Sequence to fold (279 residues):
Amino acid sequence: MVQPTNSSPLTPNSPPSEGQGEALAFIDTHAHLDGEEFDDDRDEVVARAKEAGVSAIFVPAIHLPSIDAVLNVCRRYPGYAYPMIGLHPEEVKADWREVLTEMKRRYTDEFIAVGEVGLDYYWSREFEKEQLEAFEEQIQWSIEWQKPLMIHCRKAQNEMVRLLRKYEKQLPGGVFHCFTGNAIEAAELLQFDRFVLGVGGVLTFKKSHLPEVLPAAVPLDRIVIETDAPYMAPVPMRGKRNESAYVRHVLERMAECYGISIEEMAEATNNNVKRIFGI
Fold:
């Protein structure tokens, strides 16, 4: 574990030590704060995030039922939690057209992005065609609404890149969520110059190659931090329920990788968020 600068490490059930986080503010750009995993202690989770230095949390929808849950959570923490609207590729089924019609009807300017959307062929290609068509329609939403994309992609980068190139000049930008690739894959994604890479807990894993890949292949102005909470908790919380407070561990490890201070890394990622999301 990378020890925080001038602070003690977070522990799962206690707030940071006094003074920790006061000089820093950084953003968790992807957390499923609406998930049932947080139903028993959501207020405490948000309080710990604030104490750790998290100044905002971005919350993606994944399917039609989650829209109300996402909105309810974000309205509970106004000016702190921000909603996104989208159909996750693993949720794309035969009825995707009807689902997207209803989702689009639910859209308002309250949503800061179109997400979590994309392609996922990791488990199955049963709905490969439907995923491509649903993703393309949501890309068109992004262009129509001029809202960034929050893109999920597993085992489908070639297909995703081909589709995005079709709309490259029109796209307002976005995040390639949960980047875990190599330098060649990073370079391909960074060709979309209004997009950034979202990096989470995998950066802290012992066998991760990201500590070498990121500083060599990804400029500081092309990266943001995220948790994907409640999933993929960073070291030293690996195996536990992830939460937004733990994004500080990602920030600390990233700063070490780039050879800069945690304050400089926070400023860089915050600037990137502001450029993409206006927040």
Notes: Residues 143 and 171 are 6 Å apart (CA to CA). Strands lie at 26-28, 54-59, 81-85, 113-120, 149-154, 174-176, 195-199, 223-225.
